[in-house]
Amino acid sequence: MKYFWIQLLLIAGSVSMALMFIRTWGQAKNRAWKRIAFSLFVIVNVYAVLRPTDVTWVAHQLGVGRGTDLVLYVMVLAMGFLTLNTFLRFRSLEKKLTDLARTVALAEGARHNDARLGATTAVVVTEVVVAEQQPEPEPADSDSVKA
């Protein structure tokens, strides 16, 4: 009963994180293993808050001195995973943004040229270029035409 308020606060924080994650579940395109890992994290978190001596026992079994040290080590690994995941996501978004910017620039350049030259001018210029590339027929002699 001595630690009731801090336990209540920690469990309320875990439940609020779970509710926020579930609320954005459909919006966020999370992979299934991330959903499972987060759900397990919340369950283990609530259990560790309710039974801190069990965390100390697990820490001793793993060769770590205290339960708080074990929690710290796990959080360092989780933070490293989060940082790497965020970096990879930002890199992917930057690549998509670069591709989008290139596509928009090309489309704007074509639109600008069409507006400047006029759509009919662009067609005429294309026809002239195509006509210049085709060889012209040789002129026929006037005698051969008459015959």
Present the secondary structure layout:
Blueprint: H1 4-23, H2 32-50, H3 52-62, H4 67-117, H5 119-133, H6 142-146
Helix pairs in contact: 1-2, 2-3, 3-4, 4-5
Q: What do these coordinates show?
A:
This protein is mainly alpha-helical. The chain contains six helices and no strands. Helix 4 crosses helix 5. The radius of gyration is 35 Å and the shape is elongated. The model has no long low-confidence stretch (mean pLDDT 78).
Average pLDDT for all residues: 78
* SS element count, helices: 6
Q: Kindly state the percentage of residues in helix.
A: over 70%
Number of strands: 0
Q: What is the structural class?
A: mainly alpha
Low-confidence stretches: none
Radius of gyration over all CA atoms, rounded = 35 Å
Termini separation comes to: 121 Å
- Characterize the main sheet: none
N-to-C SSE series? Answer: HHHHHH
Short description:
By secondary structure, this protein is an all-alpha fold. The chain has helices spanning 4-23, 32-50, 52-62, 67-117, 119-133, 142-146.
